[in-house]
Each structure stands twice: as C-alpha cells, then as structure tokens.
Amino acid sequence: MKGYSIDNMPEKHARAQIRETDISMKDAVNVAHFIRDMNLEAAKNALDLVLEKKMAVPYFRYLDSVSHRKAVGPGRYPVKAVKAFKKLLDDVSANAEFKGLTDDLKIYHISASKGRMIKKFTPKAYGRAGAFFKDLINLDVVVIENEKE
Questions:
Q1: Which pLDDT belongs to residue 70?
Q2: 14-145: CATH, from 3.40.50.10610, 3.30.360.10, 3.90.470.10, 2.40.160.20
C-alpha cells in the first residue's frame, strides 16, 4: 500500500495513519514499541494512564538521562506523543467499525517514521541566521480481529 510501512496486509484488517505530525521521534518510537501487539482497548487504557501520569512509558531506546520509574525501569510521560497515538487509535477504531470488524481487535502493526523536514532560520546578531530544522513524524497502524481460542 502506498504510504504504509507494511506491504502484506491481512485479509480482514483496518488501518489508519497520521501524516506529518509535530511530535518527538524518540517519544514516538518508544510509545509505538510500548503498545505493539496489545489489544486495541488495552492500548487505549494504557495511553489514558500515561496521560494521567499514573503509568510511565518504558523506554527501550534513547535512554540517555532517562530516569527510573517505579515498576517500569527507565521511562517517561510523553504527553504530546501519547495524544497523537490516541487519535490514531480512535481513527483505526472508527475504520474497523465501518468495515464491520468485531470489537475484539489486536494491533497487528504500528510504526513511527520520519516525515518531511521543515527548514527554518532564526535571525542572529550581525545579519547572520542560524538553521532550525524540524522533523515531522508519520504514524501508521493496522489492526486485525483477535483469533478465538
């Protein structure tokens, strides 16, 4: 599929993506790793707890100066990134409902990747200018129905 980071989609799936959102790449990678392979409702509940700062997102990458959190290890509360992921999960939930999938959904694939770079310049003294580049982030998710055991 054009624009998605996965090639082989399952037969019954729902997908959603957010293009060029202004969040931290480091936070986005760690939040995506945190909710990967979760049920959709469990992922939404976990993100709600992070927004309330009752549970930290465990960081597995970019650990320089990341403080230890109780029962998690190194972790943070990336509120801006979590809000973007909550919107993404709400979108995929609405898409699944439109496709007629059941409420028991599992995150099959989720990723955060670099998007476009915005190039800005900050004026400085003596007529100079300093570069200020901002990376935008693309988020995408694919959910499938959970297998009955």
A1: 84
A2: 3.90.470.10
In angstroms, the CA 31 to CA 67 distance is 16
Q: Where are the beta strands (DSSP E) in 1-128?
A: 13-21, 57-58, 68-69, 73-76, 105-123
Q: What is the pLDDT of residue 11?
A: 83
What pLDDT, on the 0 to 100 scale, is given for residue 66? Answer: 87
Partner residues linked to 118 by β-bridges:
134
The whole-angstrom separation of Cα 71 and Cα 77 is 14
pLDDT in tens, 9-23: 778 899 999 999 999
The dihedral over CA atoms of 72, 20, 114, 1, expressed in degrees to the nearest 10, equals 100
Question: CB–CB of 16/3 below 8 Å?
Answer: no
Number of other residues whose CB lies within 10 A of the CB of residue 67: 9
Spans of the chain below 70 pLDDT: 1-2, 148-149
